[in-house]
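Hi again,

Forgot to attach this to my earlier email, sorry! This is the prediction with guanine bound. I've pasted everything inline since the attachment limit keeps bouncing my files.
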Amino acid sequence: MNSETTILTGHVLCFTRSPFEGNPAGAARVEEAVAISDGKIATVGGLAALKAAHPGAKVGNHAGKVILPGFVDAHAHYPQTAIIASWGKRLIDWLNTYTFPEEMRFSDAAYAAEIASRYLDLITANGTTTVCSYCTIHPESVDAIFAEAQRRGMRIAAGKTCMDRDTAPEGLLDTAQSAYDNSLALLKRWHGLDRLTYAITPRFSPTSTPEQLEALGALWAEHPGCLMQTHLSEQTDEIDWVLGLYPQARDYLDTYERFGLLGARGLYGHAIHLEPRERDRLREVGAGLVHCPTSNTFIGSGLFDMDGLMREGQRIALATDTGGGSSFSMLRTMAAAYEVGQLKGRALHAAELLWLATAGSARALHMGDRIGTVAPGMEADLIVLDPAATPALEQRTACAQDLWETLFATIMLGDDRCITEVRIAGRVVAGGGASPALRQD
Ligand code: GUN
Ligand code: ZN
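Structure tokens for the complex follow:
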């Protein structure tokens, strides 16, 4: 079947390698146009060549704007949408005061559906087309986000949060057995369906018993194609707590490792205060470390060692950690990663920030062969970024010397007003420019 082709023209940003491996500015090509057909990227190149290759294609003109992959947020808690930006607490108090009471509301399937839809609207408006989200202990919360993402054609990962230890409140507890049984039923229902991926989700070792971690390690061994997500070494108080609860463990990571919860498809949120042994093991297995900079400054957790971890060859992703993170925006998240980098003595280049928010996160989610890069054959989750969307940006980017300077200023000053079009599998789903930008050439 010969389906309709659309050509988008603008500055098309195409990463060809990681900007952390060599000169950052040389990690991407900027092309003139990208052709989309059947929900995928068909061709990338000069406008004239693409028009010749796709006669009759519609052309969306985004002159002066940047076309790039949709952002990939590798760690979020969609059920915390309504309590984002809650004041004055550090991790354990923040969980008890704000998070757990809100998560209890997700036993109500209608509430879960309302927040899932609200959350996906918010991230889409901010240019995020893929997220890896925690849910709550309620299976209803997992059905809600997957059903809504499926309806929208989004590629997402999510999973039931498991907690069976009396450190979590009464209304938010499962058991080792029910965590296994419910996670299994959910992964059978959703994993691999359309664009959906299941992530086995023990919240973190202080809210699980060893029996629950063992059961979830067994489930992961039985379904190794699933992702596994959890938290690791976010705050120093938390580490002390973990070592008290697991006296046999060599370190925090060992509480996962000993139960089969360390692997290449494992995603370890925060990973700030790591011991040398933990760093070695994470690198050896090729695990994903997820940097959540707005969360780390907002909850007062510490400064992620991006430079050291990248140099030693870790696989690193970028994420909002909504609602411990203080923004739904990956632009704001990149700006915070830059600020954290500065406090650690390493100024991240715009190419490094953008790569982390797209190809880097996609790679950590093991989706890098489908999303996160603009190249033929990749799924057409694309956004258009306007570097002159606001008066402040317009005057700043007017005097930029090159595209990287323009992009850096857009990262630092930008917000959802810069996201003028969002396409999921080729289809326009958000952005003011939707229909005017689509015209027959
Ligand atoms: N550690 C365990 N649960 C959470 C959570 O919901 N948010 C953050 N930031 N850290 C956690
Ligand atoms: Zn988290």
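Residues 433-441 have pLDDT under 50 and may be disordered. The chain is about 40% helix and 25% strand.

That should be everything now.

G.
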